[in-house]
Design brief:
Shape of chain B: flat
Oligomer: heterodimer
Distance between the termini of chain B: 51 Å
CATH superfamily of the largest domain in chain A: P-loop containing nucleotide triphosphate hydrolases
Number of helices of chain B: 9
Radius of gyration of chain A: 20 Å
Helix content of chain A: 25-40%
Number of strands of chain B: 2
CATH architecture of the largest domain in chain A: 3-Layer(aba) Sandwich
Helix content of chain B: 55-70%
Shape of chain A: globular
Structural class of chain B: mainly alpha
Distance between the termini of chain A: 49 Å
Radius of gyration of chain B: 23 Å
CATH topology of the largest domain in chain A: Rossmann fold
Order of helices and strands of chain B: HHHHEEHHHHH
């Protein structure tokens, strides 16, 4: 199910001295099975964009269409949207409240009124997906687990309702390298094997540069770049905005400045290595 | 859940913003007392207009209704209870309950007093930044240090509390949204479900409050905060001629009002 933004504008704290623009006339479509990275300077509107995906914020102007239906057209449509679009907030482990891992993950499916046996099955599947052993973890207290484990529990809590679109706000921030890698692997699996659409807001693109289909860059509430990862990440606007680009891109920019004729738009270490070897010969 | 919360500061450059916080604190304390001296529709109207004038002068008139909204239920309940339970001449017979003339007057009086109290005390916080406010309070409390009042610690506690109101407001909003995204319905009429949702909101909020308190105390100690130490401040508060002028005019007016009311 594609999700489409049509001319979305949103202002925070309307009609007060604190009013500030969140988004201005944003239009975009994310299709089935895409993995989109959303980048932009702090305060550019990335989180605002995410919160429009499942109707947590209602646009002042324009509409959000999920599967060609306006998500704010009825409360049933909104409820369905929230089930279909899973949203993982920044530091989701700060939102844990359950006294057991099971209770925490079962919260979503229970809220949507699934039968008890169904809920259990969903919790099992979700925990398996994020790589937590069901029997070993289900009765543990979330607060006694490590940061990486907590984050995976929070992710499982969102996955338990089986969303078709998964939106994540800086999901790897504050994790150690192995935690990051595990999380990227989990999402890769969800995207590649289960065909889930992934919308991933990040400041650090290197870890997913080779995996995403598309990169979207937002500045001051407007989309300034949108296209294939390779093209967008090699665009000079990225460095001008002070955004993170993969090491390979940095090296190729640097080599070009030194007068070396780097070909193509290298994205990974492997690709830039080939170019360097070619140029040295 | 956005916008102005009780006790929030609206940055500005008006006359009221520029006054020393001590001037504003003293005047608002006196005015809160004056509210209880008011009698009759004329005086109430006068005071109401005075408050409206102050809000316009401060340039925060946009916040007026927002400030009142949380207190509005209290005002309505006060009004209704007083209208019904005060004995006197009946003006409206509703069968079960009668509305009396005395009750109506009593209710309106109380209601307006509440509105005045809320809007008057909010005006101080609306026009004074938390830092200046605590500096002002600390200086006002300083004379009481001799009798063991921990003035600077009290001021620091208040400063921290004020500082964290918007933070917790944001935190609440974030957690609430995260739970809504997982199917929570905070407007549900089912009491059992609602309690469950509120628990899911309160638990992470308390955890985050403790975590923040822990981090803050650690950061303060790391930067050498010791209880009871003599501290200087970066921005020394200074009473300007305009403060003395305003205070003089203010006290003469209040004195004139009181003398006129009770002694002539």
């Amino acid at each position: 199910m594609p999700i489409e933004f049509r001319n979305i504008s949103y202002t925070y704290s309307k009609k007060t001295p604190f009013a500030r623009k969140g988004l201005t006339n944003v239009s975009l479509t994310v299709n089935d099975g895409e993995w989109v990275a959303v980048m932009g300077p702090t305060g550019s509107g990335k989180s605002t964009l995410l919160q429009h995906l499942n109707g947590l914020l209602k646009p002042d102007l324009g509409e959000v269409l999920l599967d060609h239906v306006n998500i704010h057209s009825s409360s049933a449509a909104l409820r369905e949207t929230r089930q279909k679009v899973g949203l993982v907030f920044q530091y989701p482990e700060h939102q844990l409240f359950g006294s057991t891992v099971y209770e925490e993950i079962a919260y979503g499916p229970e809220n949507y009124g699934y039968a008890a046996s169904d809920v259990e099955q969903r919790v099992k599947t979700a925990m398996e997906t994020v790589g937590l052993d069901y029997l070993k973890y289900k009765d543990r207290h979330p607060y006694e687990l490590s940061g990486g484990e907590k984050r995976r529990i929070a992710l499982a809590g969102v996955l338990a309702t089986d969303p078709q679109i998964i939106a994540l706000d800086e999901p790897t921030a504050g994790l150690d390298p192995s935690g990051r890698q595990k999380l990227v692997e989990t999402i890769t699996q969800l995207n590649r094997d289960y065909g889930k659409t992934v919308i991933w807001v990040t400041h650090e693109i290197t870890e997913i540069a080779a995996l995403v289909n598309r990169v979207l860059v937002i500045k001051d509430g407007q989309v300034v770049l949108d296209g294939a990862a390779r093209e967008v990440l090699n665009n000079h606007l990225m460095t001008q905005l002070g955004l993170d680009v993969p090491v390979a891109v940095e090296i190729s920019h640097h080599m070009r400045r030194k007068g070396k004729a780097v070909e193509g738009q290298p994205l990974t270490i492997e690709e830039i290595k080939k170019e360097i070897v070619r140029l040295v010969r | 859940m956005e916008g102005i919360v009780l006790g929030q500061y609206v940055p500005g450059n008006s006359f009221l913003h520029k006054l020393d916080p001590r001037t504003k604190l003293i005047m608002s304390a006196v005015l809160l007392w004056v509210i209880f001296l008011l009698e009759g529709p004329l005086e109430y109207t006068g005071f109401g207009l005075f408050i409206v004038f102050l809000y316009l002068l401060a340039g925060v008139s946009g916040s007026f209704l927002k400030i009142l909204r949380p207190g509005l239920y209290l005002v309505l309940i006060t009004l209704i209870i007083n209208m019904i339970f005060t004995p006197g001449r009946v003006v409206l017979d509703l069968g079960l309950a009668d509305i009396t003339r005395e009750g109506l007057i009593q209710g309106l009086t109380m209601g307006f007093r509440l509105v005045f109290l809320i809007s008057m005390s909010s005006l101080v916080t609306l026009t004074t930044s938390p830092v200046r406010m605590t500096d002002g309070l600390e200086l006002l409390l300083k004379p009481f240090k001799k009798i063991g009042v921990p003035a600077s610690e009290l001021a620091m506690m208040m400063n921290i509390a004020l500082r964290f109101i918007p933070t917790f407001w944001e935190e609440t909003d974030k957690i609430r949204k995260a739970q809504i995204a997982r199917g929570a319905d905070f407007d549900s009429w089912n009491l059992g479900r609602r309690i469950k949702y509120i628990t899911a909101l309160l638990v992470p909020l308390f955890v985050s409050a403790f975590r923040k308190a822990d981090e803050l105390s650690m950061a303060m100690e790391a930067r050498g905060y010791t209880v009871g130490m003599e501290r200087t401040s970066l921005h020394e508060l200074k009473m300007n001629p305009r403060d003395y002028l305003v205070l003089t005019v203010f006290f003469i007016s209040v004195a004139a009002f009181v003398i006129n009311k009770y002694f002539i």
